[in-house]
Design a protein that fits this description.
Helix content of chain A is about 0%, strand content about 50%. By secondary structure, chain A is an all-beta fold. The radius of gyration of chain A is 13 Å and the shape is globular. Classes of the chains: A mainly beta, B mainly beta.
């Protein structure tokens, strides 16, 4: 069983709509949660991180964390063609594995004009 | 403002050949990492170095060795390349391996093909 699961997509989203990406993780002791965006042929770049239950907003992006359900999501509001990319969910493990991120395989998002 | 720099960007190797991927960061980070990325597999940690002078195995260390040359540099060596090591390799760094919100910054990647 993979430790971090994401739907591979592609997730097709009309321009201006909300894209909703989901991620589940298996390690109940996970502490920090990250969303990275990766354009084709490029390196991952951090969008935002969250480590407390609830919502965290940064511009058009909102991360949502529910540790009881072992679930983290990313909402992209007012989706733009430039948001077309693969979005990687990453999770740190328990205390003895800080910094050793476990990545999901990513969800491909395609924003259509 | 270079961040994390890795070389070479592209390399083709024959099976059995050896090579070293070089990585350097200029952000004064303590921790450095090597990941590989394969289609449908996401990023997998090969080795990491929590601080200068230490290295530890990650999820997929077999067939690789690393050297933390100094605080800035962390190299990855393939002693006898195999086709299964065809992948995109990313070097990364962070302030430390601890703490909530610990942010890992990635280099631009090295595309390695083993034939």
């Amino acid at each position: 069983q993979k430790e971090v699961e994401q739907n591979s997509g592609p997730l097709s989203v009309p321009e201006g709509a909300i894209a909703s990406l989901n991620c589940t993780y298996s390690d109940r002791g996970s502490q920090s949660f990250f969303w990275y965006r990766q354009y084709s042929g490029k390196s991952p770049e951090l969008i935002m991180f969250i480590y407390s239950n609830g919502d965290k907003e940064d511009g058009r992006f909102t991360a949502q964390l529910n540790k009881a359900s072992q679930y983290v999501s990313l909402l992209i509001r007012d989706s733009q063609p430039s948001d077309s990319a693969t979005y990687l969910c990453a999770v740190t493990g328990t205390t003895d594995s800080w910094g050793k991120l476990q990545f999901g395989a990513g969800t491909q998002v395609v924003v259509t004009p | 403002n270079a961040g994390v720099t890795q070389t070479p960007k592209f390399q083709v190797l024959k099976t059995g050949q050896s090579m070293t991927l070089q990585c350097a960061q200029d952000m004064n980070h303590n921790s450095m990492y090597w990941y590989r990325q394969d289609p449908g597999m996401g990023l997998r940690l090969i080795y990491y170095s929590a601080s200068e002078g230490t290295t530890d195995k990650g999820e997929v260390p077999n067939g690789y060795n690393v050297s933390r040359l100094n605080k800035r540099e962390f190299s990855l060596r393939l002693e006898s390349a195999a086709p299964s090591q065809t992948s995109v390799y990313f070097c990364a760094s962070s302030v430390s391996t601890g703490g909530g919100g610990n942010t890992i910054y990635f280099g631009e990647g090295s595309w390695l093909t083993v034939v």
